[in-house]
């Protein structure tokens, strides 16, 4: 019956995690998957999450089904966090709770594929590997636009803008509003303005993937490109995730928001999103969303949570890695580590160097050369820098 099924080649991030877990070396370091670990190397349960959890436990609500679109209070809290005071009126905005950020991409991709036949999505080069899997899985063709310049270890801005400006009307454009995964390289505010100009002029449909709100500058600054599209009345999709910024990875808490500039389109969009959810998994899970809604809906907890987001910005570990690498390999410039935003460092290490890091030193990085800086701590940063220096020396 199943003999024609080929073996699964594995996922560049999740299969690496499985390999890490099987590794019995005590000094192994996981810099593969994008997960924040604290100074002791543990994945923290945020104090605000504990507090919200304790409150929820006082009233044991039944484990009933949520509606297809998710928990109403959660959806409201999400819209408030994403759009702040500029929150659009309900007749312009459709928000559904999703299974993390990946779920938001999948629901959005399915919706677009149903109503815009034979769609193509333009993704940055490089991007998170699973963008390709999710969009191609939903029936999209994927095309790339220039993003990262390996020479300068910065943004290939002119090439990027040139490509975006030449896209056909209605083209779907995937954008990371902050903390680009995997490079950590983000456009400046002035560059974003030009990108939004090109989107507006070209009549493009941006699809924002926001997994790290608050990890670059601030919760508000990091969604500036999205709010600018809103301000200009440009239709967009926005998938967001609370996995990282609430340290709620396994709860799968996310949302998909669709901004509809034409009044009264949102009701039909929301209806079709509900249908998409129903056809995929009926309705989302409850607990993580209740926790997030509780924290965001309580002024004191929300302030405390904002401070917790700041502690997860990993600026100090970037500096420590930069310092130690610069000392160990003085003829190389590691300044890019300080300029990149978010959880990741895009090191420029080759596949062979990444393999050597893992096999000889037990340091796990993604094959693209991406390391999760949020996996570093005072107990392992020196060892990691030494191992990186060793493979760089050849
Ligand atoms: C990552 O990029 O490491 C994370 O977004 C986790 C994942 O699902 O790939």
Automatic annotation (TrEMBL):
<dbReference type="InterPro" id="IPR004839">
    <property type="entry name" value="Aminotransferase_I/II_large"/>
</dbReference>
<dbReference type="InterPro" id="IPR004838">
    <property type="entry name" value="NHTrfase_class1_PyrdxlP-BS"/>
</dbReference>
<keyword id="KW-0663">Pyridoxal phosphate</keyword>
<protein>
    <recommendedName>
        <fullName>Aminotransferase</fullName>
        <ecNumber>2.6.1.-</ecNumber>
    </recommendedName>
</protein>
<comment type="subunit">
    <text>Homodimer.</text>
</comment>
<dbReference type="InterPro" id="IPR015422">
    <property type="entry name" value="PyrdxlP-dep_Trfase_small"/>
</dbReference>
<keyword id="KW-0808">Transferase</keyword>
<dbReference type="InterPro" id="IPR015421">
    <property type="entry name" value="PyrdxlP-dep_Trfase_major"/>
</dbReference>
<dbReference type="GO" id="GO:0005829">
    <property type="term" value="C:cytosol"/>
</dbReference>
<keyword id="KW-0032">Aminotransferase</keyword>
<dbReference type="GO" id="GO:0030170">
    <property type="term" value="F:pyridoxal phosphate binding"/>
</dbReference>
<comment type="similarity">
    <text>Belongs to the class-I pyridoxal-phosphate-dependent aminotransferase family.</text>
</comment>
<dbReference type="GO" id="GO:0033585">
    <property type="term" value="P:L-phenylalanine biosynthetic process from chorismate via phenylpyruvate"/>
</dbReference>
<feature type="domain" description="Aminotransferase class I/classII large">
    <location>
        <begin position="28"/>
        <end position="387"/>
    </location>
</feature>
<dbReference type="GO" id="GO:0004838">
    <property type="term" value="F:L-tyrosine-2-oxoglutarate transaminase activity"/>
</dbReference>
<dbReference type="GO" id="GO:0042802">
    <property type="term" value="F:identical protein binding"/>
</dbReference>
<dbReference type="InterPro" id="IPR000796">
    <property type="entry name" value="Asp_trans"/>
</dbReference>
<dbReference type="InterPro" id="IPR015424">
    <property type="entry name" value="PyrdxlP-dep_Trfase"/>
</dbReference>
<dbReference type="Pfam" id="PF00155">
    <property type="entry name" value="Aminotran_1_2"/>
</dbReference>
């Amino acid at each position: 019956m199943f003999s024609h099924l080929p073996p699964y080649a594995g996922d560049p991030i999740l299969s690496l995690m499985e390999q890490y877990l099987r590794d019995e070396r005590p000094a192994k370091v996981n810099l593969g998957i994008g997960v924040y670990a604290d100074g002791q190397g543990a994945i923290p349960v945020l104090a605000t999450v504990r507090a919200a959890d304790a409150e929820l436990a006082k009233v044991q609500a039944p484990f009933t089904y949520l509606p297809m679109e998710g928990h109403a209070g959660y959806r409201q809290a999400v819209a408030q966090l994403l759009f702040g005071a500029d929150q659009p009126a309900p007749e312009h905005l459709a928000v559904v709770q999703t299974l993390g950020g990946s779920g938001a991409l999948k629901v959005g991709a399915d919706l677009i594929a149903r109503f815009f036949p034979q769609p193509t999505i333009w993704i940055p080069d490089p991007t998170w590997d699973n963008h390709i899997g999710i969009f191609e899985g939903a029936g999209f063709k994927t095309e790339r636009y220039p993003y990262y310049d390996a020479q300068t270890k910065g943004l290939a801005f002119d090439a990027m803008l040139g490509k975006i400006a030449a896209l056909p009307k209605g083209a779907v454009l995937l954008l990371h509003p902050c903390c680009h995964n995997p490079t950590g390289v983000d456009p400046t505010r002035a560059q974003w303005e030009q990108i939004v100009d090109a989107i507006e002029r070209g009549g493009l449909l941006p699809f924002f993937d926001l997994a790290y709100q608050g990890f670059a500058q601030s919760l508000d600054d990091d969604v500036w490109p999205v709010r600018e599209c809103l301000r200009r009345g440009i239709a967009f999709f926005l998938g967001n995730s609370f996995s990282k910024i609430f340290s709620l990875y396994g709860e799968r808490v996310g949302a998909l928001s669709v901004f509809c500039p034409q009044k009264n389109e949102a009701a039909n969009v929301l209806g079709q999103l509900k249908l998409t959810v129903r056809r995929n998994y009926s309705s989302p899970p409850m607990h993580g969303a209740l926790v997030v809604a509780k924290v965001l809906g309580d002024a004191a907890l929300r302030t405390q949570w904002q401070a917790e987001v700041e502690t997860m910005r990993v600026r100090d570990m970037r500096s420590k890695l930069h310092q130690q690498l610069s000392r160990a390999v003085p003829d190389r410039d590691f300044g890019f580590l300080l300029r990149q935003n978010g959880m990741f460092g895009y090191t420029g290490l080759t596949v062979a160097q990444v393999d050597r890091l893992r096999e000889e030193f037990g340091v796990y990085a993604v094959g693209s050369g991406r390391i999760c800086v949020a996996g570093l701590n005072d107990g392992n940063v020196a060892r990691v820098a030494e191992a990186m220096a060793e493979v760089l020396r050849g």
